Amino acid sequence: MENIVEIKDLNKSYAKKEVIKNMNLNIPKGKIVGLLGPNGSGKSTLIKLMNGLLHQDSGEILINGISPSIETKKIVSYLPERTYLNDWMKVKDLLEFFKDFYEDFDINKANSMIDSLKIDVNEKLKTMSKGTKEKVQLILVMSRKASLYILDEPIGGVDPAARSYILKTILSNYCQGSTLLIATHLISEIESICDDVIFISKGDIVLQGNVDEIREEKGKSIDSLFREEFRC
Ligand SMILES: Nc1ncnc2c1ncn2[C@@H]1O[C@H](COP(=O)(O)OP(=O)(O)OP(=O)(O)O)[C@@H](O)[C@H]1O
């Protein structure tokens, strides 16, 4: 199977602190993959490296065969941990902004998700609740026709009742055949939608595999396995 992400012997330190340690990882095309790990395990650092926002000290990252660059930004739709959007913008301005900025942005798809989640297009990001802001940003990112979607903690602020509805809305709209990498702590919520999971601990991969196979082999849910593996 072809891989959308290939990582070889990757190392990254901040000052003297090693955060990614000789990591090797392949992510196959067409899968929904959960990137799971405790606080400080290196998830956001890895994602920033994949998006070219940080540069590794050594090793290689290939996205569809090329190093992170302007070329890979065209095929990667990224939801960062913290927003980069101007909060004085209204939802309808953001939709236009994305339409102008990304050739692959499908404004009709975005509008239909905005409608189904009952979001007011005239509201400014600034006055929105944290959860609604997250919904808007997720809709923008998922309305691109990308080959790889990378979501860093996408729905942490969304109330539990709305989470599964949002995940379903997103999944029924995202570009089939693409890969979705979701870094999250909300394991029980995403467990049912993921094909594969990756456990990261102290900057290295400690487990990677198919969700059903892992559940069968270990005789427990991914959520229980995570709690056991990373018990404080
Ligand atoms: N800019 C930075 N300068 C120095 N250290 C940093 C910087 N960014 C992150 N770190 C450190 O690198 C380690 C990994 O951080 P990272 O944000 O990648 O973890 P994470 O798995 O995403 O954590 P969380 O689940 O809490 O978001 C942490 O120990 C963090 O303190």
UniProtKB/TrEMBL annotation:
Cross-referenced InterPro entries: AAA+_ATPase, ABC_transporter-like_ATP-bd, ABC_Transporter_VariousFunc, P-loop_NTPase
GO molecular function: ATP binding; ATP hydrolysis activity
Keyword tags: ATP-binding, Nucleotide-binding, Transport
ABC transporter domain ranges (all copies): 5-227
Record protein name field: ABC-2 type transport system ATP-binding protein
Organism: Romboutsia lituseburensis DSM 797
Lineage: Bacteria, Bacillati, Bacillota, Clostridia, Peptostreptococcales
